[in-house]
Design goal:
By secondary structure, this protein is α/β, with parallel strands linked by helices. The chain contains 9 helices and 6 strands; from the N terminus they run αββαααααβαβαβαβ.
Length: 247
Amino acid sequence: ALGVSISTVKRWVDDGVLPAHRTAGGHRKLLRAEVLALARQGALPNRDLSGLGVASFGDQPTDLSSISAGLLAAVLEGDGVAVSALIRRAYHSGAAIEALADQVVAPVMGRVGHEWETARIDVWQEHRATQLCAAALYDLKDELEARAERNRPVAVGGTPEGDPYMLASLLAQIVLLDAGWATVNLGPNTPLKSLTNAIRELRPRLVWLSVSYLKNTDEFLRSYGEFYRAAERMGVAIAVGGQALVD
């Protein structure tokens, strides 16, 4: 996976470059998640990280466009096992989380939404596709949290009141988690007044706000102004974005 010799791996372990421990038989044992983390951070060479993946998915290539095409077929067929395998394959191939979000999940769900809007599929199929993607992403989130360090900076986020979409905020959470943050995702339909109360209690350094749908633009701008000023007084940075926002 790294493109180096066995003797190099042994030397890196002995020199403390690669975290490992000795088994009772004297063998060097490395945790896959730790090796992946170091390689993804650029601390190690990377020839083909897909070999360290939890599971492969047939003989499909690991380029993101092919994975995205496979994911679209899987969500439309309701194949949760395939959905999870494809998302994990994308991640373990070395793709950045933001690339997984923008080049795999987003185009698939955009296509699913178009299929529903043009009456080619029913709304229950769109809902099922969303839930299957969410379940796979939550599994990936659990994997990232299992190897996360302690004493990380805190980020809190969600979507504003009236916005029912969950995947964009979940992807933002996973991006931050992969970047070393402790994350608290309040999910969809969170009034900005409640988000203000949350940051008063949780004291994060960063808030993300994902805006996929706005029912009332004027009301959002008014409440966002109040929210921004409150966050500024507390020294909290805000990252805001989403397809519902315009200049």
